Predict the structure.
Amino acid sequence: MAEKSVAPLLPTEPAMSTTTPHSTTADLRIDAGWIIPVRPAGALAGHSLLIKDGRVAALLPSAEADAWDCRERLNLPGHLLIPGLVNLHTHAAMTLLRGYADDLPLMDWLNQHIWPAEARHGSHDFVRDGTLLACLEMLKGGITCFNDMYFFAEGAVEAASAAGMRITAGMILVDFPTGYAADTDGYLQKGLAMRDAHADNPLASFCLAPHAPYTVGDRGLEKIMTYAEQLDLPVHIHLHETEDELRQSLEKYGVRPLARLKALGMLTPGLIAVHGVHLNDMEIGWLASHGCHVAHCPASNLKLASGFAPVTQLLAAGVNVGIGTDGAASNNRLDLLGELRLAALLAKGVSGDPAALPAAQALEMATLGGARALGLEREIGSLEVGKQADVVAIDMTAPGSQPCFDPLSDLVYSVGRDQVSHVWVGGEARIVAGENRRLDSGDILRAARKWKARIAS
């Protein structure tokens, strides 16, 4: 077995020794140039990550890891280890509509293109095949968990399970009939049946997913809250995305959407508000005081010209913010590493403060922030002993990452998703040397081409 080769511990980096008491055996030991556990913040050099039974067994200086008996050892001296990325908002199946209707305002994009295409082609097979394509893309970019909102969610769960990814599947609700369901009760019944069918799936969790205040009336939102309270489920909803949304709400209800949700009792620690672009100070205060979360989707907001979310104000108020890609039809990349760089740069540009949203905070948003919003922070989001071993290895020897003075800074501002070399979910390898271990990319790409032909015709 080759000798390990790791970067020296920098003088400013304290040694970290965290281990399960009395444990001396592990299934896998990974020696990496650096490890960023997220909690605590900062990069550790000269450390090893040990995995046992799918969970983090220890994170400790490599010299101390030599005392452990490890079934397998992987030496990655030029790599950086981080927790698996959490995509807090997407519509995974919409990979099959990538590039279908670009450069349009949101409501034109939805009403004239996306919703008609979904009405024609939406089905279990469409969602399964589109989500498989999304999983193939997301895993190769270091995403190990995604929060999904789409019709035929059972197809998304089926695809994520085949890929070995974590999914929070949304039980979607809109007020109009689709090929999936005819009315409010039909949507909810199908969503709950899907949840019951996958109750024993260790990779699947669930949330209630009313699409938006402009597509769901008060009766539907009241039912959502009843189920949310009874079943202890998060609520995932588009909110304050565009100025047009605010105008429509004022015309129809006499209040802005968030005030309407507040009156309906929807502002709770289970609320995940997607986009949150147009929020005033009072509304930010409401989100903070009620423990709500925001899913920030910077690329989608830019592409649809929705505006700039007040991320620095949200964070300053104590609102938990995670990062999402949105769907591939409005982004067009399911690239969370790219999103976290963009989020950091936008925060600086919009605020006029170059110190706004520093690298460590941006990474936390893309990992632990997303996990916290989904109620999964005890299981994922950081490399801590006892948590699921969702781990990503990033090759830092690429020319664009050299020289590496600060691996955390490089991760946010320099690294591209093509540098992801290995991905583990629950300690099981999903990506090895850039190749997917479970999915047949040829079959998935052939299916995507068939759907393109059907949609284009």
